[in-house]
Design brief:
This protein has about 450 residues and is of the alpha/beta class. It contains 20 helices and eleven strands. About 45% of the residues lie in helices and about 15% in strands.
Length: about 450
């Protein structure tokens, strides 16, 4: 699959490389696995002089031997003798960069916690001493969000405040997914929505589906639920390293959110334990869930729900992890039947999120969210507000447009509009065919 989008990120990386001509620059590239961090860095670095280091799970001495060979290949004559410590590798790079500008990419940087945690303070010391004189453009890539956040944004850590840019790479937008599908002659909105529902715009998953010529919903279900599917254990593989020994509790919380238990009281009543700390860490440390409130709610309001940000993770917990015993028994057809049975209900909620993202992408609104009242009464699927123009849009969203009751929507919005009395209201009935109006 060809390289798509990432124009803003490439612009930032180019800016840092240009500034490195006047002094060292360090860019941190984060985002969860499969989002395309390495591919982005290699796309940017084309036709430039660079070194690529991968922090594999092996001894520091073996890593340094690998890195040294790469340095010798790019800079013949710059290396004398053996180097067994990464601090000496980094010092060598700084020395070479006194005379010429080049980039070094350090992938899976958080692994140094396991290899040699003193590396972070050693890099900090060397960087502080030589940044002003060198011309080294450092691009640091990390996949474990919690560790990368700790390394560069925890004030107690040595590399705090050392990054000139921290770029958090996000999944592809809906218009980009649409562009990719159109390039493969699959521009129908149904393909677009099903790709969004399963992949959430994650580049690696889109690439997998396209390489295997998987486009329809039926093909996707068959692809995910087969004995050797690369996606069958994907959720577990992605998250166990993040969560460590407490992963079972986190998995239970995420499973409940995926099946619609989206409030803290609901989750705690089922697990019969206090999960406030877990929810807080899932949101702030791991960036896997987000909490949301009615659009006009006060900051201290307890009227809040949680959702899993990543569509694939949500799908995996809802249909794979939730039926793990059946899958381990090899009864894939049973789970496929459940997915087909529950698809309409599951897709309805994802369709709301789909339109939220489309409306946000228009840049016409400063607030896009949901609305509900106490006891989950008078729920409105989408509320979009432009405070400058004093406009408010309220929408009911359903897969089947014929099931939308426009008069009921107006009735449900009565109390909400009391908070926005001067605003010009607009009521919309939205289903998938309306998405084309917001894709430009």
């Amino acid at each position: 699959m060809k390289f798509y989008n990432r124009r803003d990120e490439l612009k930032e990386l180019k800016k840092m490389a240009e500034q490195a001509r006047r002094g060292g620059r360090m860019t941190v590239l984060t985002g969860r696995r499969r989002v395309g961090k390495t591919l982005l860095s290699l796309e940017f670095i084309q036709n430039q002089k660079y070194l690529y280091f991968f922090a594999a799970k092996k001894s520091e001495a073996l890593l340094c031997a690998e890195y040294l060979e790469e340095i010798k290949r790019i800079f013949p004559g710059a290396v004398f003798g053996e180097i067994r410590l990464f601090k000496d590798i980094f010092a060598l790079l700084l020395q070479i960069s006194l005379k010429e500008t080049f980039s070094v990419i350090i992938d899976e940087f958080q692994e140094f916690y396991n290899i040699n945690p003193s590396v972070f303070s050693e890099i900090q010391k060397l960087w502080d001493l030589h940044k002003g004189q060198c011309h080294l453009n450092v691009i640091v890539i990390g996949s474990v969000y919690s560790l990368m956040h700790k390394i560069f944004q925890d004030s107690k850590e040595p590399l705090f405040n050392r990054a000139d840019r921290i770029i958090s790479l996000q999944p592809f937008s809906i218009p980009t997914i649409y562009e990719i599908l159109q390039d493969h002659q699959k521009g129908e909105l149904k393909f677009l929505f099903d790709y969004y529902l399963l992949t959430g715009g994650m580049p690696k998953y889109i690439e997998l589906l396209i390489e295997n010529k998987v486009f329809s919903l039926s093909e996707m279900i068959d692809f995910v639920l087969e004995k050797n599917s690369p996606l069958l254990n994907e959720g577990k593989n992605l998250l166990i390293e993040e969560f460590g020994k407490d992963y079972a509790v986190y998995f239970s919380v995420l499973e409940l959110i995926s099946v619609g238990k989206t409030s803290r009281p609901e989750i705690e009543s089922i697990l019969e334990s206090n999960v406030g700390g877990y929810l807080d860490r899932l949101e702030k440390d791991y960036a896997i869930i987000a909490k949301y409130k009615p659009i006009h709610a006060k900051p201290q309001s307890r009227a809040q729900k949680y959702r899993i940000i990543d569509n694939f993770i949500n799908f995996w917990f809802r249909f794979i992890y939730n039926h793990r015993s059946t899958i381990e028994a090899g009864n894939f057809e049973y789970v496929k039947t459940i997915i087909r049975r529950d698809y309409a209900t599951y897709a309805g909620r994802i369709l709301e999120q789909f339109f939220h993202e489309l409306f946000s992408g228009t840049k016409k609104f400063n607030q896009v969210g949901w609305y509900w009242e106490k006891g989950h009464e008078n729920e409105i699927d989408l509320v979009a507000i432009n405070d400058l123009r004093q406009e408010i849009v309220m929408a009911e969203i359903k897969m089947n447009k014929l099931k939308i009751n426009s008069e009921l929507l107006k009735k449900k919005s009565k109390r909400l509009l009391e908070h926005y009395s001067p605003y010009k209201p607009q009521w919309l009935s939205l289903s998938l065919e309306d998405a084309k109006n917001y894709l430009k």
